[in-house]
Every structure is written in C-alpha cells, then in structure tokens.
Design goal:
With 191 residues, this protein is an alpha/beta fold. The chain contains 6 helices and 5 strands, in the order αββαααβαβαβ.
Length: 191
C-alpha cells in the first residue's frame, strides 16, 4: 500500500512537472504570438505609409494613409484626398486651410479632402465588405470625426505611427473600448 502511495506521489510530481512545462511553453507561445503580431503590424503600417504617398494633400506632414485588415487580409485602403470629381489641393495649387489660417486638428470640415480613414471605410461600404471586428492601420492617429466613424463601424483596434493634435478622440476610444496602439515609424518625418 505504501508503495502505491509513493508511486502516486511520483506520478503527481511528474504531472506537476509536465504541467509546469506546458505553462512555460504557453508563455513562450504567447511571446511568439506577440512577436508575430508585431511583425504583421509593422507590415501593415508600412502599407499604410505607402498608401499615404497617394495623398493629394499639399499641407506639410499631412499625407495620411490607412489600411483596414481583417484576419491578416487587407480589405480596404484609403488616403486623404478630394472626393471623386472635386479638384484636390494639389490640382488647385494651394491648401484652403493654410490660406484661411486654420490650425491642424481643428475645423476638419473646412477642407477639400476626405480623411484616409473615411475613404477606407467608404471603399469597404461601396464594395459591401464588413469592417466589423477589424483593425485599421493609419499613419496618423485618427481625428475625432474619424474616431466616431471607426467606433460605429465596429473596428476593434487602431494602430498608428504618428500623433495627431486631437486628444478628445483618445477619450472616445477608451470609453468605447477600442484598442489604440502606437507603433512609431523609425523616421523623423511627420512628427
């Protein structure tokens, strides 16, 4: 009888060791998941930066690009530029906001351009693609108007590379439970 108890204790010790190994393996797996997520985040942020080069905004450091991703698949892209059929600032040769002395992060409605996030959301809607539970990668942190649209569209995560002078959007995102991730670009531009 004593031997059986001893064997059971040995079995229990072996089980605890195996369990500890599993827990350790799980921690490694979680770290690997984080590293893989960072790798994918970096890839999609680079895509957003490429999309930003299509911007027709002539304002210094305001070329913005966005990429909406679901299950590691790009479902929509957008850049800041004039709506279809409307002359852009690049075509006009001036920025209306600069001409009127409007500070960045204020009075967004006085601009010929549609924001990158808005254009990506509209593209998805036009194509009948749901953005619910997706991630949006944006070169710049969204303004309050884009933030409201992102919340209502069901996007659950925002990754951005540059700050934007609109802190009210951050409050709304926190209240709505949207994950906001700052993944700064290595360059010094747009700061």
């Amino acid at each position: 009888m004593g031997k059986i108890i001893k064997d059971e204790v040995l079995v229990a010790d072996d089980f605890e060791r195996a369990l500890l190994d599993c827990v350790t393996e799980k921690k490694i797996s979680e770290n690997e998941k984080i590293e893989k997520r960072k790798k994918w985040d970096s890839r999609f942020m680079e895509m957003a930066k490429i999309v930003s080069t299509w911007s027709t905004c002539v304002r210094d450091k305001r070329q913005v690009g966005s990429v909406i991703v679901k299950d590691k698949r790009v479902i929509a892209t957008g850049y800041n530029g004039a709506p279809a059929g409307v002359m852009s600032c690049a075509e006009r040769g001036y920025c209306l906001r600069d001409k009127l002395g409007i500070a960045s992060g204020t009075r967004a409605e006085i601009c010929f351009a549609t924001h990158a996030e808005q254009n990506a959301l509209v593209q998805a809607a036009k194509l009948g693609i749901s953005v619910n539970d997706s991630t949006i990668y944006v070169t710049h942190r969204p303004c309050v108007i884009c933030t409201k649209l992102i919340i209502n569209a069901g996007i659950k995560r925002i990754v951005y590379g540059y700050n934007y002078p609109d802190n009210f959007s951050v409050k709304l995102l926190k209240q709505a439970g949207i994950e906001l991730c700052y993944l700064p670009y290595d360059d010094k531009e747009n700061k």
